[in-house]
Amino acid sequence: MASGLQGLPSGYPGLDRHLAGGGWPQHALTEILLEHYGAGELKLLMPALARLSQPDRDHDPESTGWLAWIAPPFQPYPPALVQWGIDLCRVLIVRPREESEILWAAEQALSSGNCAAVLLWPGVLSVAASRRLQLAAEKGGSWAIAFRPLSARSQSSAAALRILLSASREGTELHILKNRGSRPATLRNVLRDYADA
């Protein structure tokens, strides 16, 4: 993403100040690296996902894209999604039978032009696969979010943004490892910085 492009506001002003374009990179791949699920990764994304699930007042409500969840390791909890402002009518859960189908399903969803965002939990994501996801996101005008294990930190990726998220007793710490158009940074307690926009 070029630094001149407008980012999707994250809902966390402290984070937006460190992201190129002032928010999440649109039409691009974001990778979130985690030691374990439940470190605040979904809370981090919810304000932006809620915004994407709501119809734009100036456009046809039918033009609102889907929020596709591909191979989530848990069943998304509808009351929590509603509490964040997610329109459940726009949520699509995809559970591929084989791990090899996760990337295929994500590519199809991203390039279709029908998804505002695609969240995926791939077992493995090679550099070539990350490049395909990046290209599919650009083609379909969608935001791709891949959740990856901490061990993927040393691997190369075509993602426009790579962050490492960790939780401790002191709060949530976010390390921006790769930020196309801006610099790496470390933010502490970013989830306390929520601003209901």
Low-confidence stretches: none
Radius of gyration: 15 Å
According to DSSP, the number of beta strands is 8
Please give the oligomerization state of what you see.
single chain
Largest sheet: 8 strands, mixed
Sequence of secondary-structure elements? HEHEHEHEHEEEE
Q: CATH H level: which superfamily? A: P-loop containing nucleotide triphosphate hydrolases
Task: Give the overall pLDDT as a whole number.
Answer: 89
Overall description:
The structure is a single chain. This protein is an alpha/beta fold and about 200 residues long. It has a single domain (about 15-125, about 135-165, about 180-195), classed as P-loop containing nucleotide triphosphate hydrolases (Rossmann fold, 3-Layer(aba) Sandwich). It is built from five helices and eight strands. The chain has helices spanning about 15, 40-55, 80-85, 100-110, 125-140; strands at about 30-35, 65-70, 90-95, 115-120, 145-150, 160-170, 170-180, 185-190. Helix 4 (about 100-110) runs parallel beside helix 5 (about 125-140). The relative contact order is 0.23. The model has no long low-confidence stretch (mean pLDDT about 90).
In terms of topology, how is this protein built?
Elements: H1 13-16, E1 29-34, H2 41-53, E2 66-70, H3 78-84, E3 91-94, H4 100-111, E4 115-120, H5 127-140, E5 143-149, E6 161-168, E7 171-179, E8 185-188
Parallel strand pairs: 1-5, 1-6, 2-3, 2-4, 4-5
Antiparallel strand pairs: 6-7, 7-8
Helix pairs in contact: 4-5
